[in-house]
Amino acid sequence: QVQLVESGGGLVQPGGSLRLSCAASGSIFALHAMAWYRQAPGKQRELVAAIISGDSTNYADSVKGRFTISKDNAKNTVYLQMNSLKPEATAVYYCNVAATGYRTPYGTYWGPGTQVTVSS
Questions:
Q1: What pLDDT does residue 64 have?
Q2: What pLDDT does residue 54 have?
Q3: DSSP string, 20-87
Q4: What is the distance of C-alpha 102 from the center of its chain?
Q5: pLDDT tens-digit profile of 69-104?
Q6: Longest Cα–Cα distance in the chain
Q7: Contact 7, 20 (CB under 8 A)
Q8: What is the pLDDT of residue 7?
Q9: Which residues are bridge partners to 31 per DSSP?
Q10: Residue 14 per-residue DSSP state
């Protein structure tokens, strides 16, 4: 079983910064990719940023240049640094990983989500 726990969400003013963390735990053989998604009220869940083997990254056009995804392999943790936050960034942010466990086959896993609210 692979478990994900997000942290770092909260209330921030427009133009401010926030750093999200997602720690993966369990009997993990390999983490192939990690990503952040978000879902705003009345909107579809969308990919925000992803990081894969070789530390290659991919960002949604709406956040490119302001958000940065990174990971710590030793801690099985992925981060999302969010700068110059806009009210449109208000959403529940979800961590997603593609992993292979010692006891479970390859699959994707979701965290429970963390609320980010950008408001003055």
A1: 97
A2: 80
A3: EEEEEEESEEEEEEEEEEEE-TTS--EEEEEEEGGG-EEE-TTTBTTEEEEEEGGGTEEEEEE-S--G
A4: 24
A5: 999 999 999 999 999 999 999 999 999 999 999 888
A6: 47
A7: yes
A8: 97
A9: 99
A10: T
